[in-house]
Each structure stands twice: as C-alpha cells, then as structure tokens.
Amino acid sequence: MNAYFRKEIQAFEYVSFTELKIEKESEFCCEKLEKYVSSVKSWNGKIGKFCIVEKEMYVPIDYCPFCGKKIQYVLVE
Ligand SMILES: [Zn+2]
Questions:
Q1: How far apart are CA 63 and CA 3, in angstroms?
Q2: Which is higher by pLDDT, 37 or 20?
Q3: Residue 31 C-alpha to ligand 1 middle, in angstroms?
Q4: pTM of full prediction above 0.85
Q5: pLDDT at 60
Q6: Centroid of ligand 1 to alpha carbon of 77 (angstroms)
Q7: Measuring CA to CA, which residue among 18, 8, 25, 26 is closest to residue 72?
Q8: 1 alpha carbon to ligand 1 midpoint, in Å?
Q9: 64 C-alpha vs ligand 1 centroid, how far in Å?
Q10: Ligand 1 centre and the CA of 34: distance in Å?
C-alpha cells in the first residue's frame, strides 16, 4: 500500500519546524489497518511513518501488522 504524506513547515518568530502530515487519500491495504489508524493516533509527524505501541514505545512500521503488506511512504510535493 502507499501512504502519502506531505511536508508542512510551521514557522514561528524564532523557530520553525517541519511536520509531516498524512494525506487523507492514502489507500489502506486492509480494513484493519485503516480502523487502527483512525482509532489510535498512530501517525508520527516527526518521522513520517505509522507507529505501533510496543512495550510503551512507539515503533515505526514498514509492514502492515495485520496483513503483512509493505507500506511505502510517498512524499507528495
Ligand atoms: Zn494491511
């Protein structure tokens, strides 16, 4: 599956930082992941990947934990 995200730069007076935002039109490989992502805040805006919570730590995932499909993270310009 492809997860589309884009860069958004938040600029303040003294600092600016980049936030990576997931695009709504990302198509999910399976319903379970889609439900998981919408119920749990699993998108990590700093690294631009979905995460699962494992031993109270956020672990970025490259494969769907439900069906095993590879997740491609695609930056949309
Ligand atoms: Zn899946």
A1: 11
A2: 20
A3: 7
A4: no
A5: 95
A6: 25
A7: 26
A8: 8
A9: 5
A10: 8
Would you state the pLDDT for residue 32? 95
> Residues 22, 46: contact at Cβ < 8 Å?
no
Residues comprising the chain, all counted: 77
pLDDT digits (tens, 9 = 90+) for 22-50: 998 888 999 999 999 888 889 999 999 99
Q: How many CB atoms lie within 10 A of CB 65?
A: 14
Residue environment code for 20-29, b if the CB has 16+ CB neighbours within 10 A, otherwise e: bebeeebebb
Cα–ligand 1 centroid distance for 40 (angstroms): 15
Residue with tokens 């930082």: 17
pLDDT of residue 54: 85
